[in-house]
Amino acid sequence: MKISAIAGISALATTLLLGGLVVAQNTGAVESLRGADIDLTLPADEIHQQKEGREARNYRQQPPLVPHSIGQYQIDLRTNQCLSCHDWTNAGERGAPTLSMTHYLDRDGTQLDTVAGTRWFCNQCHVPQANAPALVGNTFQPSNGSN
Length: 147
Prior knowledge:
Number of strands: 0
Subcellular location: Periplasm
Largest sheet: none
Radius of gyration: 28 Å
Keywords: Electron transport, Heme, Iron, Metal-binding, Periplasm, Signal, Transport
Protein name: Periplasmic nitrate reductase, electron transfer subunit
Structural class: mainly alpha
InterPro entries: Multihaem_cyt_sf, NapB
Binding site for heme c 1: 68, 82, 85-86
Shape: elongated
């Protein structure tokens, strides 16, 4: 009884394996996700220039856009170069906007002297503004008096 069950399972597994191989062979050629052959050189996207000046916010509590390049800024577990200008201890002498006090609150609402770990990685919320077309169309309309 056990031998016939094992033989039946083996026969079924072999049939499924061979059937899968036949289907895989007949599905056609593999297509590249990039839309071209691997050896074809595609043109690079246009480089969009940084917009100067500050952009108006579209809704209340929107994180402000960064009005300067951040390409060379180091932000990692130990270093955050944004704070060299925007921390409350430096902002006045650098002429930079200071961080909101919410950046100095921990998750329990306790006031800290340094930026909270939950707000350390600035580019999670703040992005550089660029004169670039929208990646996806939308019909968003800013609210009245949201700035």
